Amino acid sequence: MTVLDAREAQADPLMPTRTPGAASLVAFGSLLLRDAVVLRKTLKAFLPRTLLQPFLLVFVFTYVFPKIGQGVGGGSAGGEATFSTMLVAGVVGLAIIFQGIQSVALPMVQEFGYTREIEDRVLAPLPIALVAVQKAVWGALSGLFGAILVFPIAAIVPATPVELDINWPVLLTLTPIACYMCGALGLTFGTRFDPRTVPMLFGIIVIPITFLGAIYYPWQALEPIRWLQILVLANPLVYMCEGFRAALTPVDHMSLWVVYPALLAFSALFTWLGINGFKRRVLA
Amino acid sequence: MGAMMASVMSTALDEVIRTDHLTKVYPGGTLAVDELDLSVMRGEIFGLLGPNGAGKTTTAGMLTTRVIPTGGHAFVGGIDVVERPVAAKQVIGVVPQTNTLDRSLTVWENLYFHGRFFGMNAKTAKHEATALLEQFRLADRGTEPIDALSGGMAQRLMVARAIMHRPDTLFLDEPTAGLDPQSRLALWEILGELHRAGQTILLTTHYMEEADQLCDRLAIIDHGRLLALGTPEELKASTGADTVVTVSASGDLDALAAALQTGFDGAQRVARVDETVVLEVRGMHGVIPNVFGAAERAGFDVTDISVSEPSLETVFINLTGKDLRE
After folding, report:
1. In this structure, how many other beta carbons lie within 10 angstroms of the beta carbon of residue B117?
2. What is the pLDDT of residues B193-216, one digit of tens each?
3. Is B172 exposed, middle or buried (0-12, 13-18, 19+ CB in 10 A)?
4. Could A30 and B117 be called an inter-chain contact, meaning their C-beta atoms sit closer than 8 Å?
5. Do B98 and A116 touch (CB under 8 A)?
6. Are the C-beta atoms of B172 and B93 separated by less than 8 Å?
């Protein structure tokens, strides 16, 4: 090897020397870094879009209603306070699932649809399935960030006292699973909608999921409407909200023996659907 | 024996792209690429020339891991692109047909993150991104959003991005489609520089001027099949003619073509192409009056007549009976 060759070899960081595993790991991390930089640049839009809806929800239901004597959950003694407490878990769950849609599904619809800019990331040296999973992981991190931002709102804004009873082991294990599931849900939607059909995503999917997601009422309370109680078991948000109820409050909740397996199963399902949808969109 | 081994070794090393019976049938039955065999050597600019829909983009897509072949094999740098896509992606650089720059990032950041995706540390990626912007005359655009770039600038940035991780092979899919003439020339200049620096380049194009000017060797393809392979000079020489006469006239052009075929000595080949009749002849002398005379004798009013050298277009017409623009 001549001196020139040696210098060339040194200056030239030719990649085939790296194993696919090492290359994939670095690329995966760098994709997350890219998303974080984009988030930092768009924080001015991220904050209102993350905070405003939960804030209004909590403000109207737990501040305005009690103040104007139109309390929700009223009737029984302490009903309003129970409602405020009950809503904490729902608001956290809602914030996370919205991040799945806002941080993963909507950008992906654009990147697939108008610009095809996803193609460059598809050419990064990692398996295509991991490019897809990276999006779900980014959705999970955004969801966590969103939940941390809205939690104080749910705890502080209500006019009636919110009773928190944090079960740390549950909170610390449930949060990552719930966040990941919402990221994977966003991945699935992002690969299945295009710019033309994306308004339907809100109309026929997001709105039913949130209204029937055990945000405003605990799942058990649906007992009198048995068919609805069974129907909403297909809604992943139900398990999240019930899980957060267990993690954050003393309110009655669905058994954790159901919550954990359901969240894990939905995570696996959405990951599978998301990877398949992603491959269908980028490979021919 | 030793010498032979060395020669075998160097052949193996010098072949950067190889396809064996590479085939792609899309769901629905469209046969886009049909048993294509290609071999591209290190340092070559190799062109896939053919009309739209010939299978060029599909071929480039298979070589760059984005299209999964339904038959045959494709190797880049000795790596089977289907078996080992992650390894393959490390040794290729791709400039796709459309602007796939990251709209959420600035011009500089597009390069910086590309470097990071390909394993550069922050310091190296910063340094390389800045150096490339300088080299591609985009240094003053670094902080701008992608949407602020003209088509030509976006294309330069995509080339810069594609070579940033020093790929063995650079793929460009219709790199100058939709560019203004000035930007096209600028891009040809850049590709020429890369070529002189030893970069292996595979490009697809339906512009014969581009293929003629840039490429060391060309594969002419249509309907997914390889029709001819060689240097532009070899391909043009294969027509056997040295002059091409294009005749416009009113009336039945097929009849004119037939009349010229019989009525004009020295016509090697006569074909109707669009609204003209094209004759390939050997020997320039007296061609125009002779063609004119033959047409008049057959009762045709010639409205225009032009003479040129055989081009890749001529080659393509000979091979397929139609021109590249169709």
Report:
1. 27
2. 999 999 999 999 988 888 998 999
3. buried
4. yes
5. yes
6. no
* Cβ neighbour number for residue B231 with a 10 Å cutoff: 12
- The pair of structure tokens assigned to A191 is 């690969």
> Which residues of chain A neighbour B79 with C-beta distances below 8 Å?
16
What is the helix, strand, coil percentage profile of chain A, to 5?
Answer: 80, 0, 20
pTM, entire model = 0.85
Interface predicted TM-score of the whole assembly (ipTM), two decimals = 0.85
B144: tokens are: 């701008």
CA distances from B215 to A95, B58, B81 (A): 56, 20, 24
CB contact under 8 A, B102 and A20: no
- Alpha-carbon gap, residue B32 to B35, rounded angstroms: 10
Nearest-CB residue to B66 (from A24, A37, A282)? A282
CB contact under 8 A, A125 and B101: no
Which helix (H) or strand (E) segment is B213 a member of?
helix B208-214
What length does chain A have?
A: 284
CA distance B167 to B227: 29
A139-181 pLDDT, tens digit each: 999 999 999 988 888 888 888 888 888 899 999 999 999 999 9
Q: Which of B215, B157, B148 is nearest to B186 (CA)?
A: B157
- Provide, as residue numbers in chain A, all residues whose Cβ is less than 8 Å from the Cβ of B85: 127-128
Angle at A80 between CA A75 and CA A85, to 5 degrees: 140
**Residue B150 dihedral angles phi and psi, to the nearest 5°:** -75, 170
Please indicate whether, in this complex, the C-beta atoms of B66 and A116 are within 8 angstroms of each other.
Answer: no
Q: Tell me if chain B has a CB within 8 Å of the CB of A177.
A: no
Query: With an 8 Å Cβ cutoff, is B129 touching chain A?
Result: no
Burial (CB < 10 A; 0-12, 13-18, 19+), residue A172, is exposed
